[in-house]
Amino acid sequence: MRYITLFLILFIFGCKQQIKKETITVVETSRVDYLPYYNEESFTPNWLTPGSKEERAFHKIPDFKLTNQLGEMVTQKTFDHKIYIADFFFTTCPGICPKMTGNMFKVQEVFRNDPEIVLVSHSVMPATDSVSVLKTYATKHEVIDNKWHLVTGNKSEIYSLGRDHYFVENDLGEAKSIDDFLHTENFLLIDKQKHIRGIYNGLNSASIAQLIIDIKSLKLED
């Protein structure tokens, strides 16, 4: 009887070990090879292979000319061979912007020694957010110059970038004009080919953690 009991214990234990091993295998094999690509405001994922004909023809963020907190011109050339994270804010925002800035700072700190990763925050009130105002804001929030660009410029250009190319507002199908204020908590992950590879809630700690994971995954595509 004692031997039968011992056999049953070993058998049950062995089954549990086998089940556990099979579960881990399923999790490992279900991981995606690449982050998805996005090209419109619903953010429906498109599963493309990097370097493919489809990927090369896919939606990209167009060139722009803006000015950062140092008074330097910032264009898409600034981000050549770099992965960047974009958001939209204004320096006098009393609501969501301080938390967004705090979370962008966390991303900066994780990648502060990685030259491939940069950040860009677009002012949606460029008339008041001058270079000197942005510089003061940058100093207050410990922004690393040339790592994190706070940019100002032509309002129409900034709003067009946000709505027509980054798709940061979630009001699907609702037409907006330059007179409608652009205000969003979204962060966008942009790859080295200027494609959108992720959208994240800049107020949510779990979403920021996922952004950091996705940045590391994107680096592995090189």
Number of self-contained structural domains: 2
Overall pLDDT score: 87
CATH topology type of the largest domain = Glutaredoxin
Q: Which class of the largest domain in CATH terms? A: Alpha Beta
Explain what the structure shows:
By secondary structure, the protein is of the alpha/beta class. It has two domains: 1-31; 53-219, Glutaredoxin (3-Layer(aba) Sandwich), CATH 3.40.30.10. The chain contains six helices and seven strands, in the order ααβββαβαβαββα. The strands form two sheets. It has a five-stranded mixed beta sheet with strand order 5-4-3-6-7. Strand 6 (186-190) and strand 7 (196-201) form a beta hairpin. Helix 3 (97-110) runs parallel beside helix 6 (205-219). It is globular, with a radius of gyration of 22 Å.
What labels would you give this structure?
222 residues, alpha/beta, Glutaredoxin, 2 domains, five-stranded mixed sheet, two-stranded antiparallel sheet, 6 helices, 7 strands, globular, disordered N terminus
What is this entry, summarized?
This protein is an alpha/beta fold.
